[in-house]
Write a structure and sequence with these properties.
Layout (H helix, E strand, L loop, with lengths): L12 E2 L12 E5 L3 H15 L3 E5 L2 H10 L8 E6 H9 L3 E2 L11 H9 L4 E14 H7 L19 E4 L5 H14 L1 H12 L2 E5 L4 H7 L5 E5 H9 L4 E4 L7 E9 L5 H12 L1 H9 L5 E2 L23 H4 L2 H18 L1
Parallel strand pairs: 2-3, 2-4, 7-8, 7-9
Antiparallel strand pairs: 1-3, 4-11, 5-11, 6-9, 6-10, 6-11, 6-12
Helix pairs in contact: 1-11, 2-3, 6-7, 7-13
């Protein structure tokens, strides 16, 4: 089954506001989006519900690993944010609980298709295209050519000047890996990754970290989702954002209820809020630029126009399977180890 067609171990950051010693939270959420959005969502939902919730920010792969490890006795109620193919992996391992959200009929077609593909276990909350960004000031000072394509990134001129996420922990980086396989074919993709590895300064735990480093001038080029780069550019950084010439992949960020959740009814209410225009509006309010899934939600003014970007026919069904994820990660680790 093909995926949705193109449409035209870090330290957790606890964002709990409750004072130590108070009663246990009414809901526990693992958050896979930017820290600022995690905090805004926590504040908005607590104001809406009158409850105290525990919100922990982690990279998507780390969230999946925690939910796997706690399968027999979950401590988490909701997994909110992070790449959809990783949510699909969790669903296929029977780690997530089906739920029909209140706003499912308001979802855009790509989100409705994703929900159906997940068997009703995960709902799409946003979308965003993959790309990279470079620091224009550094590029000028170093007198280097501007990259416009994926394969430009293997140029020796960028030796030690690129950051990317580690696909073992970062959902963004796993989307990069899956995108390259779909663009180039698996063998050529891994030859590209071996060549790119010679130019990588650091593999980060979080997928947005590379463009944040480029924004600060700590590296020249960061590979991340384009909306994360837009957020940095809005803050005043000299980033130039690139949609690679060969084409690129995209994510559907999702929300899921953990099977065996201790607070199932409150988890359902949180999912409903996450899919509502009010809940999705917390993204733009916290400086995020993903495309929201609810047709009634306002589109952030600076969100990349993904209808103008050349996209792969991203195969969520294949790359959302645990077997394919494990196989590709093993090959990635072997290739990177051999070229270091």
């Amino acid at each position: 089954m093909r995926g949705i067609t193109a449409f035209g171990a870090g330290v957790a950051l606890w964002l709990c506001g409750a004072t130590a010693g108070m009663t246990a939270p009414s809901l526990t959420v693992l958050c896979g989006v930017d820290e600022a959005w995690c905090a805004a969502m926590k504040t908005a939902y607590e104001a809406k519900s009158g409850l105290d919730i525990a919100m922990t920010r982690k990279s998507t792969g780390d969230i999946l690993n925690q939910i796997r490890a706690e399968k027999a006795a979950p401590t988490v109620d909701v997994w909110w944010g992070g790449t959809g193919d990783t949510h699909l992996q969790g669903g296929s391992e029977d780690l997530l609980e089906p739920y029909q959200p209140a706003h499912e009929r308001d979802m855009l077609p790509w989100a409705q298709n994703f929900f159906a593909m997940s068997g009703g276990r995960s709902a799409g909350i946003y979308a965003g295209a993959l790309g990279f960004a470079y620091n224009a000031d550094l590029l000028r000072d170093l007198k280097l050519p501007a990259p416009t394509c994926w394969k430009d990134l293997t140029d020796i001129a960028y030796r030690g000047r690129i950051q990317s996420g580690n696909p073992n922990s970062s959902g963004t980086a796993f989307t990069t890996l899956a995108t390259l396989v779909q663009l180039f074919g698996e063998d050529e993709a891994f030859r590209f990754l071996a060549a790119l590895n010679r130019n990588i300064d650091q593999y980060t735990t979080a997928g947005s970290a590379p463009v944040k480093a480029a924004a600060r001038g700590e590296t020249l080029i960061g590979i991340s989702f384009m909306h994360d780069a837009v957020t940095q550019k809005q803050a005043g950084s000299p980033l130039v954002i690139v949609a690679p010439c060969e084409g690129t992949g995209y994510e559907i960020g999702a929300v899921s209820i953990v099977k065996g959740a201790r607070h199932p009814e409150e988890a359902k209410r949180f999912v409903d809020f996450a899919l509502s225009p009010e809940g999705q509006g917390t993204g733009a309010a916290s400086g995020q630029n993903q495309v929201p899934s609810n047709a009634k939600s306002a589109l952030p003014l600076a969100a990349p126009d993904i209808s103008l970007i050349k996209m792969v026919d991203y195969d969520f069904a294949t790359f959302g399977s645990p077997e394919e994820r494990s196989r590709l990660l093993e090959r990635f680790d072997a290739v990177i180890s051999a070229t270091n």
